[in-house]
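Our preliminary data section would be incomplete without showing what the modeling component actually yields. Below, a chain of 139 amino acids is followed by its predicted structure, encoded as tokens that our downstream tools consume directly.
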Amino acid sequence: MLSKEWVYDNIFKLSTDESQKERSTLLNDLKDRYRFRSIEDEGSDPAVEEEAEDVEESLEQLKNELKDKGGRPREGGTYKKDKNPFGRDPLGDEERKAALKKESQKAKLRVKSVINGVSAKKKFLHETDMLDENNIIDE
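Predicted structure:
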């Protein structure tokens, strides 16, 4: 192995000033190569100083940007409340129960009217014991 100085002096035949200049340009080339690789890999330029951002401020800014974008509502469910977009009773439970109640009352009235009509026209047989002597037919 040979030293860099010997190679610059004996092989390249450079003077001391020229070798110093080449060393500085080689150093600048290495810095540029590192910079380009970090930009390609990480997406950030190490030569540009980034300002330190406050995380809380950036979160608030993102919240404000996303606030008016639409999407899912932030508040919880409002089922069976006046705030519900479909009203207090979105599934119609109360109307259905009221309709069933009215229907059952109408059915009861119909049954009573039929029973009252039949009982007025016909006499019901009363059950008696089959072994009762009153059931014997006279010959």
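Residues 93-121 form the longest helix (29 residues). The chain has a mean pLDDT of 80. Preliminary results of this kind motivate Aim 1 of the renewal.
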